[in-house]
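Q: How would the structure tokens look for this protein?
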Amino acid sequence: NLISSIDGLDNLKKLQILSLGENEISSSVAIESLRPYKSLRVLNLMGNPVAKKDNYVASVIAFLPQIQ
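A: Here is the predicted structure in token form.
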């Protein structure tokens, strides 16, 4: 896949699981953009450049504390 940003989810207010593994998401801004989705419990970004950054786990915890 070649997804490089997370957008177009505005109508999915009750989104619980988002799996975008093996794409081209490279910015922690993409993680921050998921803050409004309070129902989000599972996020898969493995295989994306953002997941290889040193601060990846800290960013997820900071921006999305509800993630399991």
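The two ends are 25 Å apart (CA to CA).

The first strand starts at residue 17 and ends at 19.

Upvote if useful.
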